[in-house]
Amino acid sequence: MVTKKNQETTPLDGNEEPVKLDAVLNRLGAFGKHQLITMCMLALVYATNSMYNVNYVFAVEDVNYRCKVAECESAGTSFVVPWLNASDSELDSTGFKQCHQHPPLDNTCRVFNTSVSRECKEWAYEIPHSFVAEFGLACEEWKPPLVGTIHSFGSMVGLLVQGQISDRFGRKTAAVFAGTMGAVLGLTKSFATSFWLYLALEGLEAAIGDALSPMFMLSIEIVEKKRAVLFQMILLNCYTIGQIIMPFIAWGVPYWRNFLRVIYAPTLIILTYSFFLDESIRWLFSKGKKKQAIKLIEKIAKRNNVKVEKSLINKLNYIDEDTSSSVTDRKLLVKTFRSRIMLQRFLVCMVWWFTITLINFGMMISSVLISGNKYINFALLIMMDIPANIFYWLALAKYKRKLPLIASFIVGGVFCVSQPFMPKGYAWLGLALFMAFEMLATFSYNIVYMYTSELFPTYTRNSMHSICSAFGRVGSLLAPQTPLLMTYWTGLPAVIFGLTSLLSGALTLLMPETARTQLPDTIGEAEVIGKRSVVKYDPVKDCLKGT
Prior knowledge:
The protein folds into three domains: 1-63 and 139-322, Growth Hormone, Chain: A; 64-126, no CATH class; 325-537, Up-down Bundle (Growth Hormone, Chain: A). It has 25 helices and four strands. It has helices spanning 4-9, 21-28, 33-54, 56-59, 84-87, 131-134, 143-169, 171-189, 195-208, 212-221, 225-252, 256-264, 273-276, 281-286, 290-303, 310-314, 329-338, 340-367, 374-383, 385-399, 402-418, 427-453, 458-478, 492-507, 523-527, and strands at residues 65-67, 100-101, 118-119, 123-125. The strands form two sheets. A two-stranded antiparallel sheet has the order 1-4. A two-stranded antiparallel sheet has the order 2-3. Helix 7 (143-169) packs antiparallel against helix 8 (171-189) and helix 8 packs antiparallel against helix 12 (256-264).
């Protein structure tokens, strides 16, 4: 961190050359009062958003059910009854999933007519107030998984729109709107009176209630680039903590409606961010709002108790070629795609995002299939993300972006392809590879999230990032179907995960290194990344070597 003493003795005023924005961000500091307040507000969004994305795993949990036999039921009959197995010789081997029954031969319900099978009309549920029971989803096994599919589809559609909203109206506006709508729609879900209404609300929440993308953009744009990875590592751990806490909330609040209310109600506070959260200085400059940007710089300097000279601010050089009022956001996006270099990066990024979402969602689905307490299993799997987040920060600080991403894709791919060929007597080795691959999957995800944002210019950064992320949601749509491939060969899903990871690793060789270069504000600046030597951040000599 640059201290006040360092700042006062650095002769910035004497530099006659144009000053880049990172020079001012360096002067404002990375962990001053303003940044810490902003980080706390962002941390809440990260922690709660992690629950938004996967709460259906617990809210729409699988439950056992059996047919009600009118001749055998009584007011006090429980789910488990002595005659259950006799009433149906074809109970689901994974639990009680009874869709047909044999009629009793007498009122004692000890003997059933096994030559006759009839469809059930009513069911008794092991958990009477579960999602499946309240909406009567017995013997409609395709409906509960549809919630996760619709969530992924809604998120995919929403990202396509949300990125453009963020680039046009600002990171703050997009984040506050999405965060508030997520809370409102999430609470509304808890009052749903039918399965189809719940499904519609789930899709709508995923489409317009995900604030993570604009909040991420804000988090990397409020500090100079070399501090962004550390800043992001802290926020990623907040995201992970939210996911670790969620299964224990579900365990302690088993009724699905109350569970949703507990995790969504606190996020209504995001509405107040309209008054306390500041916009991205970089976005303001990219839209030609120089007066507002300078005013915000002065506000942050005062809050952080640092001095930023007027002469330094006046020398801020921001290329206004693409920020005039005559240039629309759509034209800027089209111009970005017309760049051959930008298009090549975009195509590689889409493969990255497809790979990481397919693998991460596939791993998450696999975690609840492991025998044992599903709440603890889920929490333990997510806990592996914490060392992955820390390793992400350390690796990027020392080895930049490109090499760690290639290594994680290649090593993870090898682990995954080799897992099905592990000897059956070494189950522990297969589990160890599973956990190691989970860490590498999270590590890759974190790098791709940061790497993608550094490849494109400010005025289309969120749009390009969101389009890549939206394409990646195709992977999350396919992930729930991968267990079906096990009917052909149990190791097929793992091999597919591994091969896609290896492909992504190979394609990364085509990408430029973005570490220790300035965050590009224009297409011209973005295109020259990787074509020149390391770019200095600003005229100030850094007291710490950054990433």
